[in-house]
Structures are given as structure tokens and as C-alpha cells.
């Protein structure tokens, strides 16, 4: 938009959310171009730096958040620094300071015996529920289903987890899918498929179990492969080799998709090798590599690298 100003026309320009007033008759277009170019790169960097600083400040300002983050580092690290006892001490501190997820984790710590007495697990799950974590209701349900801490009552366990699943708790959907699929007393394939389908897009093992269920109880092999690949994409290692070999074997029956299938077989075989790091290359991995044109390797390995960044 052009605006009059002191006998000149100024153009209103929006750049990265800011409005700049630029003289239409400016006599240094090169300087203007340089200014615009620099701004396009420096504004996002400054915004990111500001965002990172806010994240650190928030961790310091929210009581218990630093303890919760430290606890997760102790719990989920792959290094020798993993320490369940220290993690649970920090989760308990964060829980007492009001962090809902820490309350649930503290319940796990009591349930698994890292904190005592074990009976305190239910109390902390109830606190997590009161703080808004629906999944904690299924944590209590799991205790009843397994008969841990409380007297076993599978019906009550299923009822509690169903309530949690119906309001969106993925963990509850996972638990129900597994129970209906694997527990002989309550086995119900339709119920198992129902809950696994809801959990599978977000939970790697559920996607794998759903694929197995479809493969075993129907002839929908393409659907099963879809869920196996979903499981692999979510990082479930047992799915990698299965998916790679399935695509390789499917090439003959799908000549029009043979190249795409070979590329996928190569990607999943290389991802498996990168994550497992075997001392020697297995025959199935080498076989896929030999069949894949060498000109494809660099581009496909970039896709492998993108996948591995998630884990």
C-alpha cells in the first residue's frame, strides 16, 4: 500500500510479521536489497534464540519442572548414567511440587518397587487423575487386572481402562488391545482389533500387534504390511526386517511397483543395520543391497538418515 509522507510515497511492506516503511524513490536499491536479505535470515534466528531462552526460563520458573526433566534423563538415557533410583527420587520431588506427569511416574516407581511402600502407587495415580491425566486411571486398572498391590479383578481393570481409553488415553487403548489379544480368559479378537487400531498410529508395538492380528485372522496382507511399516516408522525394531523382506518378495507380483518396493526394502534394511550395528552384514541385508542399483544408494541413505534422526 502507498502512503504519502513529506512529498514522497512510502510503500508499506510486511516482512517476517513486521511492517517496514520503504521510500518508493529510494536512491540506494542495492542497500535495500541487502537489508531485506539479511533480515530474512536474522529475524528467524533471533526468534529461535528467544524461544530457546524462554524454554530455559520456563523450566526454572515452574516449580518441579527441572526435577522432572532431570528424572527423565536418568530414566531414558541409553548410557551408563541410567539410574532408576535417582530418577524416582526426582520424580517424587517434582510430583510433590505439582507436576501431573511426575505424579504418574511416581506411581510407576512405587508400583515397580523403586520407592516404598508399594501400596502408595494407587495414591499417586489418583493424584495424577485429579490433575487431569486420564491414563492414570488405566494404571490403576492395570493393577486390578494383574492383581498387583490389590486383589485381582480383571473385570474392574478392563472397566477402568475402558473409561480412560474412551477419553483418549493411548496407553489405555494399548493395554486393552493387548489384553483382548493375548489373555486367554478374556480373548476377543474384535475388541483387540478395535483398540489396537486406535492405538497403532501412535504406538509402535500396537501397530505391530495389529499387523500380526490382521495377518493371522484375515487375508488382507497389504493392510498388514501397512501396519508393519507403521510400526517400523515408529521405531519398533522387529518390524524393520519383516517389512524389508516383505517388499522384496512382493516385487515379482507387482512389476509396476517393483522399483518403489526395492527402494523401500533397501531403506528398511539399511535402517535395521544402522540401529543394530551387527559385527557382520547379514545375508538378507547384503542381498537387498546387491539388487539395489548403486546410483540409488546415496539418495536412499538420506531417507534412512531422516528416519534415524527420530531415535
How would you explain this protein's 3D organization?
The protein is mainly α and 311 residues long. It contains 15 helices and three strands. The chain has helices at 29-61, 65-76, 84-96, 100-111, 120-130, 135-146, 154-166, 170-182, 189-199, 204-217, 221-233, 238-249, 258-276, 283-291, 294-308, and strands at 2-5, 8-15, 18-23. Strand 2 (8-15) and strand 3 form a beta hairpin. Helix 13 runs antiparallel to helix 14 (283-291) and helix 13 (258-276) packs across helix 15. The longest helix has 33 residues, at 29-61. It starts with a strand and ends with a helix. Mean pLDDT is 85; it is low at 1-52.
Write the layout of secondary structure elements.
Layout (H helix, E strand, L loop, with lengths): L1 E4 L2 E8 L2 E6 L5 H33 L3 H12 L7 H13 L3 H12 L8 H11 L4 H12 L7 H13 L3 H13 L6 H11 L4 H14 L3 H13 L4 H12 L8 H19 L6 H9 L2 H15 L3
Antiparallel strand pairs: 1-2, 2-3
Helix pairs in contact: 2-3, 3-4, 4-5, 5-6, 6-7, 6-8, 7-8, 8-9, 9-10, 10-11, 11-12, 12-13, 13-14, 13-15
Amino acid at each position: 500500500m502507498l502512503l504519502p509522507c513529506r512529498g514522497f510515497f512510502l510503500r508499506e511492506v510486511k516482512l517476517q510479521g513486521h511492517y517496514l516503511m520503504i521510500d518508493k524513490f529510494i536512491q540506494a536499491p542495492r542497500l535495500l536489497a541487502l537489508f531485506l536479505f539479511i533480515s530474512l535470515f536474522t529475524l528467524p534466528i533471533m526468534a529461535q534464540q528467544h524461544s530457546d531462552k524462554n524454554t530455559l526460563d520456563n523450566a526454572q520458573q515452574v516449580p518441579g519442572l527441572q526435577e522432572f526433566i532431570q528424572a527423565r534423563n536418568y530414566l531414558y538415557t541409553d548410557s551408563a548414567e541410567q539410574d532408576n533410583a535417582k530418577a524416582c527420587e526426582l520424580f517424587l520431588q517434582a510430583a510433590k511440587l505439582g507436576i501431573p506427569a511426575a505424579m504418574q511416574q511416581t506411581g510407576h516407581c512405587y508400583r515397580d518397587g523403586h520407592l516404598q511402600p508399594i501400596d502408595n502407587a494407587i495414591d499417586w495415580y489418583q493424584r495424577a487423575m485429579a490433575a487431569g491425566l486420564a491414563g492414570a486411571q488405566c494404571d490403576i486398572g492395570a493393577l486390578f487386572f494383574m492383581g498387583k498391590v490389590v486383589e485381582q479383578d480383571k473385570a474392574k481393570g478392563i472397566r477402568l481402562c475402558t473409561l480412560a481409553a474412551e477419553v483418549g488415553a493411548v496407553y489405555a487403548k494399548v493395554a486393552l488391545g493387548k489384553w483382548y489379544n493375548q489373555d486367554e480368559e478374556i480373548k476377543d479378537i474384535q475388541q483387540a482389533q478395535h483398540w489396537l487400531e486406535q492405538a497403532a498410529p501412535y504406538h509402535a508395538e500396537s501397530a505391530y500387534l495389529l499387523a500380526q492380528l490382521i495377518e493371522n485372522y484375515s487375508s488382507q496382507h497389504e493392510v498388514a504390511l501397512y501396519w508393519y511399516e507403521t510400526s517400523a516408522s515408529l521405531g519398533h525394531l522387529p518390524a524393520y526386517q519383516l517389512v524389508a523382506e516383505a517388499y522384496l518378495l512382493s516385487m515379482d507380483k507387482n512389476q509396476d511397483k517393483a522399483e518403489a518396493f526395492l527402494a523401500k526394502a533397501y531403506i528398511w534394511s539399511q535402517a535395521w543395520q544402522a540401529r543394530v550395528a551387527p559385527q557382520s552384514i547379514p545375508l538378507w541385508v547384503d542381498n537387498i543391497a546387491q539388487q539395489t542399483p548403486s546410483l540409488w544408494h546415496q539418495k536412499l541413505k538420506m531417507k534412512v538418515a531422516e528416519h534415524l534422526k527420530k531415535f
